């Protein structure tokens, strides 16, 4: 079977994270062609060990293909995107790089801002520099970004905003490589996200903590995130950022759905350091250079004139905010039933 990744040598930085593992599983499924190799690059040997064990297990018949491709194609490499020599070694021989390594916890980045700079900015610079200085034959680099990079108010968002620009400028320094990005919102049920937190709080008898009653967030699954990334690889021009069209919800509605008829209190605790009440995936300034990308995504054209080209008909008027198209509580229940039934459980879906 031929396809987008058939015979490609793929590097996933930060590959042991929630996104990295789902991305790796999708690559090994062969749905877009079977890669020659998929290398998971990260600095945590324990996470790599458990990921290797997980991918080598066959729990159901549908795992057979992933198991076989894991035996043949999956590789693990210890290293750190902060270390230039590690990045050169990892990127050498890669055809496609999914750059998912990041410090992404908002409060952690507020308390350790320089650490966020070292990973999110210096890590990106190390990858661009390695490709440019060593003329590495990398075809495509996909930077994994976040809605917090748009009009950033916290360190995580600020560093990811600069990371986007580092990758975009990489097209000028290494013109034989296509540098693109994917920007999306909160990922449901990923490690450290709000759904597992709420479920743990409910299981403990509460309270469920909400930072502010007005808070809204975009919602998508890890599979939706991977779909966005793959769409960018298929269709994005150099310097473009692909952005999904995804729904949003009030966090109080999400918490209330998960609480259901249980006697669990909801408590407002106040906004944490660096939090926004509403997230933005595209600002009004960016709207003027946002076009309709392929497969129904928004494509944000780069600001640099050497890459931008004309934008005759912007696809967006004003910003694209999580406050703009909120799901009703009923629509949210239907959405969660479709997207994460295994996480919220049958008891919620039968309510």
Name a few traits of the molecule.
alpha/beta, three-stranded mixed sheet, 42% helix
- Number of E strands: 16
CATH architecture field: 3-Layer(aba) Sandwich
CATH homology superfamily name: NAD(P)-binding Rossmann-like Domain
Instruction: Supply the helix-strand structural class.
Output: alpha/beta
Distance between the termini: 43 Å
The CATH C-level name is Alpha Beta
**Average pLDDT:** 91
| Low-confidence spans | 346-351
**Could you name the CATH topology?**
Rossmann fold
Give the spatial strand order of the biggest sheet. 3-2-1-4-5-6-10-15-14
Radius of gyration: 20 Å
Q: Return the domain count.
A: 1
Quick structural overview:
The protein is an alpha/beta fold and about 350 residues long. It contains 15 helices and 16 strands. The model is unreliable at about 345-350 (pLDDT under 50).
Describe the overall structure:
- With 351 residues, the protein is α/β, with parallel strands linked by helices.
- Helix 1 links the parallel strand 1 and strand 2.
- Helix 4 packs across helix 6 and helix 6 packs parallel to helix 7.
- It has 15 helices and 16 strands.
- 42% of the residues lie in helices and 18% in strands.
- The chain has a single domain, classed as 3-Layer(aba) Sandwich (Rossmann fold), CATH 3.40.50.720.
- The strands form four sheets. A nine-stranded mixed beta sheet has the order 3-2-1-4-5-6-10-15-14, sandwiched between helices.
- The longest helix has 21 residues.
């Amino acid at each position: 079977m031929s396809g987008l990744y058939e015979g490609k040598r793929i590097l996933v930085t930060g590959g042991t994270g929630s996104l990295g593992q789902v991305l790796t599983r999708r690559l090994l499924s062969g749905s877009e062609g079977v890669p020659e190799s998929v290398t998971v690059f990260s600095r945590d040997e324990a996470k790599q060990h458990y990921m290797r064990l997980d991918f080598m297990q066959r729990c159901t018949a549908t795992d057979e293909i992933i198991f076989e491709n894991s035996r043949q194609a999956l590789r693990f490499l210890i290293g750190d995107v902060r270390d230039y020599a590690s990045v050169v070694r990892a990127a050498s021989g890669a055809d496609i790089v999914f750059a998912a390594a990041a410090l992404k916890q908002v409060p952690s980045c507020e308390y350790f801002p320089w650490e966020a700079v070292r990973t999110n900015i210096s890590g990106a610079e190390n990858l661009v520099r390695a490709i440019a200085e060593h003329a590495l034959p990398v075809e495509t680099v996909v930077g994994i970004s976040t809605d917090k990079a748009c009009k950033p108010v916290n360190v995580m968002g600020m560093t990811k905003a600069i990371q986007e620009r580092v990758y975009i400028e990489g097209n000028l320094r290494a013109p034989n490589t296509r540098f693109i990005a994917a920007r999306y919102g909160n990922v449901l049920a990923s490690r450290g996200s709000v759904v597992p937190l709420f479920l743990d709080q409910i299981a403990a008898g509460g309270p469920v903590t909400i930072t502010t009653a007005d808070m809204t967030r975009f919602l998508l699954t890890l599979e939706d995130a991977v779909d966005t990334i793959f769409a960018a690889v298929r269709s994005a021009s150099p310097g473009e950022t692909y952005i999904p069209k995804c729904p949003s919800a009030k966090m109080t509605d999400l918490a209330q759905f998960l609480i259901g008829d249980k006697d669990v209190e909801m408590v407002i605790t106040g906004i944490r350091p660096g939090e926004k009440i509403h997230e933005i995936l595209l600002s009004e300034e960016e709207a003027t250079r946002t076009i309709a990308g392929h497969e129904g995504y928004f494509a944000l054209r780069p600001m640099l004139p050497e890459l931008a080209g004309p934008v005759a008909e912007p696809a967006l008027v004003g910003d694209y905010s999580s406050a703009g198209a909120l799901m009703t509580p009923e629509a949210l229940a239907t959405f969660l039933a479709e997207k994460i039934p295994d996480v919220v459980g049958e008891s919620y879906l039968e309510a």
